[in-house]
Each structure stands twice: as structure tokens, then as C-alpha cells.
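Give me C-alpha cells for this 270-residue protein.
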Amino acid sequence: MPDQPSLFPSMHFPKAAKEVFTVELGRYLDQADAAAQSEQLFDLLSAFALNLDCPWIAYGSLAPDLKSLKPARPEPTIMLNYPNEWRERYFEMGYDRIDPIIKTSRRRTIPFRWSDVYNDANTTEDERRVFDEAATFGLRSGISVPLHGPKGRFAFMSFARPSDYGFEDRSITYLELAAIHFDLRVARLTDSRSVNEYPEMSAREKECILWTARGKSSWEIGKILEISVNTVNFHIKNVMRKLDSGNRTAAAIKALNFGIIGAQDVAGSS
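Here you go.
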């Protein structure tokens, strides 16, 4: 099981830029925790995404049996700030039924670039047309973050740019962290009881996910706790399973949001 990025990314890019993005991410997380409505969360995420040159974002939460973006219940499960003309065109043409972003998000657990889907041999011409037309309305490049939850719950978050400039790995990591946190906060606001109920964690599982949140690899955690790498991965996989998370980054964020590990512990000395 390869290591995933930590809650505090340490990719190689200019120190000044790293500090700016880290500060902005921290500000977003703090403000999101205090938000009382989904609309407030969306506005905060939109403001954060602008730091990474993404003026447009879209969030969709779908039931397992739905094939389109139309929500099954009256809750605000669809939030987006795409250009009005593109929204009208999208639903007028029925693109919600063939959207390759939805199809790909259902199959994957990690973020993906739209360009990768467009160039995939399995993508049909009709699906490529969705991307082509989106580009004519200004959405020329983007990424999407699949968000899989318990009981088949499925959502995704997309970030779009008006330019063809590609997304660097570091930008995708920051956007993924923000999207996961957004999704968890929306779940907490819409169903506070369900997000406060989580499986019991062993002391060792808590230790492993805490050090994961601090950015340590399985090898490093093994050295710190004096256990084997296989044992570390075993405990982290258990945490991922118990928290219905597709990767260790999502599991660490959920553990933080649920209070399984404390924010002060994560930010403490490593």
C-alpha cells in the first residue's frame, strides 16, 4: 500500500509558495469548521480554490442508483458556480447522463485530471464532447476528486480553470485535502448523528493514523513505534476500512474531524 500525501504536504516546490498555500489551507480549514451552513462552506472553498487559479468548482452528491446529477432528495446536494450558460447547456443536452467525470469518479478513489480522462481510449466521442463544449464556455482544464462514503454514498468535487495550463501534483494535493474536508463538513451539517458515530479504534490504530497525519511514511512509523512496516500497513488499512476511506489521507482527515486524533497532536512535534 503506497504512502499517500500527509495532511501537511511536503512536496518539492519553492518554500515561499509552500508557506502561502499552507497558510491558506489552514485558514480555509479553520473557517470551514466554524461554518454553520453548506452555502457558507461552498463560498469558503470557492475562495480557497482561487488561490490555485480555479475560479469554478462543482460539488455533487449522488445516491448509488442515480446516473445523473439530479438529486434524489430536496437537500442541497448539488452546489456549483459554473457559468450559467454552461449549466443550461449541460442539462438541456442531457450531459448529466453521460458525464465522463461522474463515470470516472465512481470507479476511482484518487483525484484525476480531466485531460487524462479525455485521452483515455475507453472514453467515447460523446463523452469527449462534454469536455469540448465545456471548454467553449471557459472550463478548459480541471481535476475531479472522488468522494466515497459509507453505505454506498458517493460524491465528487471538481475544480476548473479557464486556461489549458495543467495542474501540478502539489496543487492537486491541496485541492484534494480541501475537497475531503468540505465533504465531511457537509455530511456533519446534514446528518450530525451519523458523523459522530464511528467504529472503535485500537490504541495502535490511533498511533499509526496520527503519525500518518504528521506526514510519516509506513517505514518511519515502524521505526518510531518499533513495529514492522507490514504491521503499520495492517493498522492503517484497518483504519481506512473502519472509516470508509479510499486512501490514508482521507482516513487521517476523517480521524481528525471525528476527534479520534486531535488537531494539537497532529501539529505537535514529529
